[in-house]
Design brief:
heterodimer, A: about 190 residues, alpha+beta, Lipocalin, 9 strands, B: about 300 residues, mainly beta, Porin, twelve-stranded antiparallel β-barrel, 2 helices, about 10% helix
Amino acid sequence: MKKAILISCCLFLISILHAQDKFFTKTGQLHFDATTKSSPTTIEGKHKSVVAVLDIKTGNLQFSILMKSFLFKQALMEEHFNENYVESDKYPKCEFKGLVLNNADVNYGKDGSYNAKVKGTLMMHGVTKEIETTGKVIIKEGKPQLKAIFSITLTDYNISIPNLVSDEISKIATIDLDCSLEPLKK
Amino acid sequence: MKKFVALFILAVLLNITLWAQEDLLSQLKPDSTKKEYVKSAFKSPRVIMSHSIEFLNPGTMDFRILHRFGTLDQGYKNFYGLDQASMRLGFDFGIKRNLMVGVGRSTYKKEVDVYAKYAPLQQTTDDKMPVTVALVSGMTMNTSPWDDPTRKNFFTSRLGYYFQALVGRKINSKLTLQVAPTLVHTNLVATDFQSNDVFALGVGGRYKVSKRIAITCDYYHNFNGLTEGVNYDPLSVGVDIETGGHVFQLHFSNATGMNERAFINETYGRWGKGEIRWGFNLSRIFQIAKRKENSW
């Protein structure tokens, strides 16, 4: 009888502890570049409100990006990005759901920089694809910062580049991600 | 005892749900949704000849070259009208999300025109505001030599004005429609029986057939400015083609004039008689001011 109460209490405690294992941000930064070598202008966009959640116990990692919030130097480029390329009215969000594969190697309790292998599915423009990349988890004052540079092939996500601009816009976009996470309180 | 069993099961379940591949994103509190305005109702701030409910982005300049050739019914001797061309050169500026101004000069009557377009109401994505209402106020100045230099001519006789309310809605991602009640005032008209104030109602729309191509139509009904057998309602039908930096508006029209005063009052061609003209508008947008909200 007493054991049952004790175990129940322990389990409750564990579930409460779990709730504090999550870190998040709504102001993550992302930059992409799809400029070809021959292009006279740079084709790049910036995002300042990437949403990210990381569960440090399980290594569960998820990102959500509102496509409309990409910023461009040229207003027209922004319009074309939303209207003609990613069709942000139809596909408003890009989402990544995955895992830090080597989560056990990251000591979240100790400051430092750790290499991380991440694998998961990226959903963009109505297409879901498996991706795998490496990045860094930097722990500072108990808070993780996620950094990664990787590239995606736009045609994989049915984002076609017309021949007319194919010498300006690269089919491969390089993505630079930087998210500083804060503890998620319930 | 039963109570504790229940408690125990509850505690186990609570842990299982936590360990499962949970949807982390859904645990974040959703942000309050910001009001968002509908964009890209038209590919360009003009339907074909008429103003559209679309505005230029702030800090951009639209350099517009409008061509209208001669009438098709002239046959091969005049290359179906291509031997003659009338044009308007224009610069439009986006100042605010809902404010733009422009200036242009047409070869027809050597007319200079300026305008300002302002939208007090703009369609929002949540449909709380279902339409965009834009007001246009413009002025034209005829700079050609006086018809009769022997009489006393006044500078004001060169001027005309137009006032317009555009009410339109992007109905879905493909279809946009607008109506445009318009008043054109001309200070000096050619004959007694012509009215200085002409009322007209414009109807315009576009239908996107692909990401970069749209079919457009632009028509004005002139209520009190038509003289039988002389002038007619202007109708233009065209295709918008967007090629990255440029928008080409290829069209057929029975109007020569390329400002509101000219095409509403002085459209002399009839569609039924082949008195239509082939034309194209070329629009090139330049970013002339750095974008504030986008600090790099």
